[in-house]
Amino acid sequence: MVVLWIVLAVGALCLLGVSTSVRVVQEFERGVVFRFGRVRPQPLGPGIALLVPVADRLQKVNLQVVTLPIPAQDGITSDNVTVRVDAVVYYRVVDPMRVAVDVQDYSSAILQVAQASLRSIIGKSELDDLLSNRERLNQGLELMIDNPAVGWGVHIDRVEIKDVVLPESMKRSMSRQAEAERERRSRVITAEGELQASRQLAEAAEVMTTHPAALQLRLLQTVVEVAAEKNSTLVLPFPVELLRFLERSTPADAATAGPADGRGADPATGLEATLKAVSSRQPQSAFPAESGNAEDRAVP
């Protein structure tokens, strides 16, 4: 009976030893073996790993890419603007031996280095760089984190700045600046349009000067556009040539119609004489009138 108990105890111990000495390493893991405190030269690959009971201790290292968010850091930029910036770091283990031996907690170490590097980048950069030139800042931040991480057996794949939080006063100032910039652009565009329109009008004026009939056609087109709506008023432009004719003929007529005392002619009397002279040279139907009797339409 005693022998049976001894055999059962030995069998239980053997099963316990086998269960503790047989371990499974996943495909994305590597196993670092410590035998009596000394690390083995080569890590164990994926599959079944046989360990020496009591003597060996297995430490598994994950080789997958780790996404590490960096908490938001408060800082002052080089142009004295208070900002709050957060980022994210993507890294992976490339040397399981160094990760297991050289650094106690590599994930925490990477986080602390990332926070310090982010604060350093904020202090060296201007606000415009944080808002518009993030790609260059991401590269600089990646380089700052990767320098110490290489010695720990960790490779930094990518670092990205996620968000930049500005004070409310700075947001209002930037909004006013953007509004002023848009107003400046609109004025410049309007001025350019006026310049192009003036050039086209100058070319049109040259064509009309060469061909006087074009001016008459343009006049008729303007009359058609004005009379398109249902209105009772027809507006006809007064010919400039007639005004020049009146200007040339007014002094002579005014001199003949002036009083004999030599004190000068009355402007109203001179204008009346000029209108009479014009009416005597051309028919009265040449002066359009919009309404009234025949006596009202006649020029005195």
TrEMBL record:
Gene3D superfamilies: 6.10.250.2090, Band 7 domain. CDD domains: SPFH_eoslipins_u1 (cd08826). InterPro entries: Band-7_stomatin-like, Band_7, Band_7/SPFH_dom_sf, Stomatin_HflK_fam. Residues 20-178 form the Band domain. Coiled coil: none annotated. GO terms for cellular component: plasma membrane; side of membrane. Residues 253-269 have a biased composition (Low complexity). Pfam families: Band_7 (PF01145). Residues 253-300 are annotated as: Disordered. Belongs to the band 7/mec-2 family. This is Band 7 protein.
